[in-house]
Amino acid sequence: MLGKLKERLSGGANRLQGRTDLLEAVCASAALVAAADGSVEDSEIEATIKAVTANEALNTAFDARQIEGCMQRMLDRAGGGRVGQMNLMKELDDINGNTDDSEMVFLTALDIADADGEIDPGEQAMIEKIAKRLGINAASYQ
Q: Can you give the CATH number for the domain in which 11 is found?
């Protein structure tokens, strides 16, 4: 049983190898949620990087430098107001249509929103926007 789990995880990592579109979508969703209240604080940056690097498949497919670099680029875009937000939403389009990828992106966003123990109204609104963009029913995950 443990062997099958390990095989599935390594298979998932192999599936992701070189797929920067998925890494960028995960980081974009995390940045969108982190900036949902209008600013990105240092604690949100740390929580966001921690949540993304905790993803076993991403952490196996990409090294920490790649993940942190991508996350920082997306967080920088998140500080760009509506234009930055629009560009981050477009990152989600690259994986839209793949149920597994969309679910991974959405669950990461949900983890970021819930990192402090509660999802505030701005974060909830962003979660719903992300879900809609990905074609996911947000209510079925909360």
A: 1.10.3680
